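Reopening: [Ribosomal protein S5]-alanine N-acetyltransferase still failing for me.
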Amino acid sequence: MPILPGPTVDLAALFSAPAPPVLRARGGLRLRPWTPDDAPAVRAVYADPDVRRWHARTVEDDDEARELVAGWTGEWGARTGAHWAVDDDGGALVGRVTLVDVDGRDGTAEIGYWTAPDARGRGVATAAVEAVVGWAKAGGLRRLEIEHAVGNVASCRVAARSGFALEGVERASALHEDGFHDMHVHVLFPRPDERPGSPAALGSAGVVVRSAQCGDAAALWPLVDGFASTATPTRAGFATALAATVIRPDARVLVAEAGGAVVGYLLAQLQPTFFADAPVAWVQEVVVAADRRGTGGVGRALVRAVEAWAAECGAAYVSLASRRAGDFYRAIGYDASATFYKRAVEGA
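Support: Ran it again with your exact input. Result attached.
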């Protein structure tokens, strides 16, 4: 019996060329098809401990590397995937990027990548992913995913910088040498406003608000560290808490960016109530970079974004406590309604 909907993408047209096309990427990078001559470089990359750990494989010799490359190139003919070698402007192999599990009916695919050890820190993976995203979207693919182990913070950072929103976590779904790992699932839709749980609010001063990713930890840490006045957070503890919070359906961490830089964040969570006959969105932390306070509309953009999230979740209202920003909250429509009390937990 034929399937009624689809296909979304004409795979015959998408894979009509003899091999994946050569693509250009930022930084003078060149994405090209793999060849058997790449075997020694591939073997060397898979000897790297990080590649072995996160890609869960080794390559013992050049013959095995050639077999691996042959498998990659064979997916093009099968119309199931495309694999590119990434060269720098001098012709040296600096990375790999893939588009696999291509589904023409649903218009979906998954992107993968690695960077050669001596090329890390240069934005190779991000630039390569952006180039493949452009090609995939031009070919009609509508939903692209990136999956990585939760502990692979570098890969999470690439996904976030490439515009992929964190959609959720697959518990104990991928087997590595040290056991099963939870996997983050990031997703990219054609338009920012289609990304699940990722509000894209543009403020009057060009402030963009989006959902945080685990890869934002380094950029957020100075704001978190500067905010604390009655506690002493640690950088490692914060990174762990961020990774756990961004995947919670009842919590939201929002990041404000301006000019490509992180200039603020907001942490909120849904609190169950009896009296309101609905949950309440409690804003725990709002932090704006010192040089943007009172000038750029950062706080306003963050608050409006969390209000939109609260409405989507069916919250009765948004509530928060503030020691120094009362005038700001009253100016944007908030009323003082209670006195805030707290007491430290003994032994904590």
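The chain has a mean pLDDT of 88. If you still see a failure, please send the error message rather than a screenshot.
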